[in-house]
Specification:
The chain contains 3 helices and 29 strands. With 349 residues, the protein is mainly beta. The protein has a 5-stranded mixed β-sheet with strand order 2-6-7-8-15. It has a 5-stranded mixed β-sheet with strand order 3-17-5-4-16. The protein has a 4-stranded mixed β-sheet with strand order 28-18-19-29, with no helix packed on it.
């Protein structure tokens, strides 16, 4: 019991060590007006607003220059035309939000270490560009970012503002690919990678949360728990309104393509043991037959018309070259975090 208590104290002290000198362990710095979520369930995580410092336009290095990642480390990838970038978990563990400009897109890569959820947002809100910071608040143990333009608070997993001038506004989702560093550098050997030269002194590669990612009984904040799956199992969730459908990596381990109907929408879900992706099919694409062709390159699918599609849903050859499959609203996270926010069903093959 003493060892467990010491580990918890260590974790909390490490979390607070992320704080800048301008920390506030109350909600005083956050907008305390109307909330669209139960305010009694909005908890103070400790560091205060900006206590965990978000990054802006981070330093980038080439894949060949990366020495701080093991092949098993997770990264979040984004591709905009020929500009391809990887955002390592080992950096996001300490900063949680990276505001970046990739081509013409202003993106916020948001990652919550406590729910394991990495979600990309377009930073243009109501026609104006903003940046996002870490509020220090949590809802269902999940990150609450705030936008610097209005100070409004947002729920990461709900993808919307839950407090402030923008309450009820939705964030436009930017499609991401989350996988291991070993897979990513094979897919995109010429991509750029966020470096550990962040301007902050952090022990990148050592999690501030210890064994939290793998310990199914260890939680730092209260949240309702659904026991249908191991609580910290990483799943891929497709979101439709207030409902979600969870896909297990064990069902995709051999490389699988699934056409699935969920809440009236047709989805193409494709993946393997290392990543899963989902696309929303429409009248133009729902009658295509897709075959899994992944072989350690970015090429993922071939359809019955002879078109070849990459992992980001781009047709790279064939008569549809240049066409994009519409990305689903979907992300990867710890199992417990999905039913905490959405009425969730589990895919069964």
């Amino acid at each position: 019991m003493m060892k467990k208590g010491l580990r918890l104290l260590f974790c909390i002290s490490m979390l607070v060590s992320c704080s800048s000198s301008n920390t506030n362990n109350s909600m005083d710095d956050n907008n305390s007006s109307e909330w669209s979520i139960p305010i009694q369930d909005v908890l103070d995580g400790g560091p205060g607003r900006d206590g965990i410092p978000a990054l802006e336009n981070p330093n980038l290095i080439n894949v060949s220059e990366v020495t701080f990642l093991a092949d098993s480390d997770l990264v979040i990838g984004y591709k905009n035309g020929d500009d391809v970038r990887a955002y390592p978990h080992v950096i996001l563990d300490w900063h949680e939000i990276i505001n970046d400009n990739v081509g013409a897109t202003s993106v916020a890569i948001t990652y919550c270490p406590l729910t394991g959820t990495g979600i990309g947002w377009n930073r243009v809100i109501n026609g104006a560009e903003t940046t996002f910071g870490v509020s220090g608040l949590l809802y269902n143990t999940n990150l609450i970012p705030f936008d610097r333009a209005t100070g409004s608070n947002w729920s990461q997993i709900l993808n919307e503002s839950v407090n402030g001038d923008l309450i009820g506004s939705k964030a436009a989702i930017v499609p991401l690919l989350e996988t291991t560093w070993g897979v990513w550098k094979t897919l995109y050997p010429d991509s750029k990678v966020v470096s550990t030269n962040t301007g902050f002194s952090r022990t990148y590669g050592t999690s501030p949360y210890g064994d939290y990612n793998t310990n199914n009984t260890r939680f730092l904040f209260p949240v309702e728990k659904d026991s249908r799956l191991p609580l910290k199992e990483r799943v891929y969730a497709v979101i439709n309104g207030s409902k979600a459908k969870a896909y297990r990596f064990s069902d995709f381990s051999q490389g699988v393509v699934v056409k699935d109907n969920f809440e009236g929408n047709n989805y193409l879900v494709v993946g393997n043991a290392n990543f899963i992706l989902a696309f929303l099919l429409d009248a133009d694409t729902e009658n295509l037959d897709f075959t899994y062709i992944y072989d350690d390159t970015e090429l993922m699918l071939e359809d019955n018309e002879g078109n070849v599609w990459n992992v980001f849903g781009e047709a790279v050859s064939g008569s549809r070259m240049g066409q994009l499959l519409k990305p689903a609203v979907a992300f990867k996270g710890f199992w417990f975090s999905i039913p905490a926010f959405y009425s969730t069903e589990i895919y069964s093959n």
